Amino acid sequence: MNWDFGFIQEYRTEFIDGFFLTLKVSMAALILSLIIGTIIAIFRISSNKALRAFGTSYVEFFRNTPLMVQVFFFYFGLASIGYKLTEFWIGALALSIYTAAFIAEIIRAGIQTVPHGQTEAARASGLSFLQTMFYVVLPQAFKLVIPPMCNQFINLVKNSSILSVIAAQDILYVGEQAIAEYDPFSVEIFVAALYLIITIPLSQGVNLLERRWAKQGTR
Amino acid sequence: MDFSKLLEGNTWGILMKGLWVTLEVAVIAIILSFIIGIVLGILRYSKLPVLSQLATLYIEIVRNIPLLVVIFFAFNTLLDKLDSLVMIVIFGMTVFTSALIAEIVRSGLNSVPIGQIEAARAQGMSYIQTLIHIILPQALKRMIPPLVGQFVTLIKDTSLAAAITLPELLHEAKLIYSNPSYVNATIPILLLVAVIYFVVNYSLSLLSRQLEKKLAG
């Protein structure tokens, strides 16, 4: 095997830009999917039948269809009726809509583990629905929700590589360009390493948090 | 937008041919991943020196890389050796999915109470006997629902291979609407593709839920 890392020098600025594009689109999608996911989760536990049905359909539909189809929808679909979004927003939107289905389920599970009696007690003490959520339910749900949320962010970073398919210049896209002139094996190793720089600390952090909180739980 | 195009020409036939490739790749990849995943999972669980660490290293690295990177990796380095897109995609997906299945196997193994293992060992069973007769049968039962979930993920992820022109469902859809006279049917075709994925995957999810109930009962 002939290692050749000369491409790092030549594509240095592209790789740096690509690295930050990957981070930026993942962050934008995280924020958007938290917003959409929270709304869907509230729909899922609402007492209104129509809202509940909508929430359930949303989760089931997007969990069972590929992210790539959503990306194609925003890319080719919108173009076919004369709309054009930037690659960044196509990626961010598709990632958010997809990830929101998973985040909604995490939030719902978190909220539902807080015993119902506590909500009733809070309401009986005169707290409003929102106050009950903010002061009673959410703080307790928080611990349960944080580790799987971090996992979703890891998935977002990994899934953001789909941007390269629509020619947004993320880490993977820059790598594919470098491959035209350099040893593919060396380039792919470097591309994988760039993703690992983001994902490994996150996944190790999740493991640590889970272990620490599991210990506190038994005390 | 022209929904009538869905019934014209050979749209339906082309999509079904694509779905067939998707299922073929997903089925072969899940079987291979299961075999490798079980070995990796047992190795990581085993605490055997070196082998256990190597399994952990493999699992942690592979599952933290995007699958698309793995697919491009296989495509760019193996094309001259394998000479078949289907084989390359199956290879890439197996490398990736076996790491995820190894984790399913490990948590299945961990869910067997330690008391049972101690009891089996106290009865004079060897480590391997305990693993085969006591731990694995119970662990396998608990692994079935997450394994079905992983299979659904594989069916979805096969669409990533459209990026290297594997003729699976999404790629075939793209071929249809790339035809100028079908451009105005792009959205209807993509919606239809989404529905096809949904029907296949949702049926599998329902099946898995039923299995879960049966196994719990």
Automatic annotation (TrEMBL), chain A:
Gene Ontology biological process: amino acid transport
GO molecular function: transmembrane transporter activity
One Gene Ontology CC term in the entry: ATP-binding cassette (ABC) transporter complex
Topology with respect to the bilayer: Multi-pass membrane protein
Record's keyword terms, sorted: Amino-acid transport, Cell membrane, Membrane, Transmembrane, Transmembrane helix, Transport
Domain ABC transmembrane type-1: 19-206
Source taxon at top rank: Bacteria
Membrane-spanning ranges: 20-43, 64-83, 89-109, 121-138, 189-209
Family to which this protein belongs: Belongs to the binding-protein-dependent transport system permease family.
Protein name: Amino acid ABC transporter membrane protein 1 (PAAT family)
Organism: Baia soyae
TrEMBL record, chain B:
Compartment(s) where it occurs, according to its Swiss-Prot or TrEMBL record: Cell membrane
This protein's UniProt keywords: Amino-acid transport, Cell membrane, Membrane, Transmembrane, Transmembrane helix, Transport
UniProt key word Membrane: yes
ABC transmembrane type-1 domain boundaries: 19-208
Stretches that traverse the bilayer: 20-43, 55-79, 85-105, 186-204
Biological process (GO), any one: amino acid transport
Protein name from the UniProt record: Putative glutamine transport system permease protein
The organism of origin for this protein: Baia soyae
